[in-house]
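Summary for the steering committee. One of the milestones for this cycle was to obtain a three-dimensional model of the protein with adenosine-5-diphosphoribose bound, which we needed before selecting residues for the alanine scan. The sequence and ligand used are listed below.
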Amino acid sequence: MIKTYPKVTVVGAGNVGATTAMLLLQKDIANVVMIDVVEGIPEGKALDLMHMRSNERFGPTIIGTGDYQQTAQSDLVIITAGVPRKPGMTREDLIGINAGILHSVLERALPLSPDACYLLVTNPLDVLTNLAQETSGLSPSRLIGMGGVLDTARFVYAIAKETGAEPCEIEALVIGAHGEAMVPLPSLATVKGKPLGEVVSEESLERILQATVQGGAEIVHLLKTGSAFYAPAASIVLMAQAILDNTGEVFSSCVRLQGEYGISDVSLCVPASLGSQGVREIIELPLAPEELLLLRASAKAVKDQLEH
Ligand code: APR
């Protein structure tokens, strides 16, 4: 029997978009339509991936295109389109340019896939997710940003490096803004079932937190001409799988808060259960008082950015 796959549109055929497409295919998750403004890139990468399919024998297929009609009736639209910050460009310039790109993408994709979930990836993630929430008219539950899953992956790596434990032996979570104002939660982290605070010294914990927050910048510094894409793509695919398979799995996701954690009218990464309709439920964790303060400061930082 031939298996039928859900349809996922990946907007942006750059490093993050193409790696996401590859994982969606290789993990047998979805048929992919990959779209980009640069003619030839999505078509060429899709053809390369279809050649790869001959060897790997995965079931799903991919189309590369510049034509939005091909994206119609997608179950999920993942938006990675954007420009990176270039020398001489301010952060505000980047926000303006990427907000314009996001707006034009949503304007084209939404009418063709009105029932899809939309997963935003382009940075600055928090600001763009908030702007899209305010302008797209999409139900807040179907517009979700990817940030916390990636920050959590970096937290787990830093704990593993410092303790010698394997990632599968570590439980950890990062919430808050996807940037310097992120909020790793050491009070809830465990290593082999023991509280992180009992396993590492204060200096060691400080190094872990530093490495978590600086992980993305360290990669930018090393690569010189781009930012991370393997772990971002894997983070997207975890969330995509929960949405497409309607699993209800909980991930740190950039979602609209309306009173949860005492925060309102802003999108921020908090644990949320994801399914086919997007956000099923926002989970309110029992945070340590200082962590709650940091989360509220993170919300304020995002709101301040939105006002500028
Ligand atoms: N529509 C579709 N694609 C677009 C548009 C648009 N309006 N504008 C730009 N693009 C495409 C570019 O042509 C490029 O192929 O988006 C792609 C971005 O790819 P990269 O520059 O390789 O960036 P990448 O590393 O994939 O990161 C994409 O994800 O993690 C975030 O910070 C990262 O915001 C960045 C985004």
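Key point for the committee: The first strand starts at residue 7 and ends at 11.
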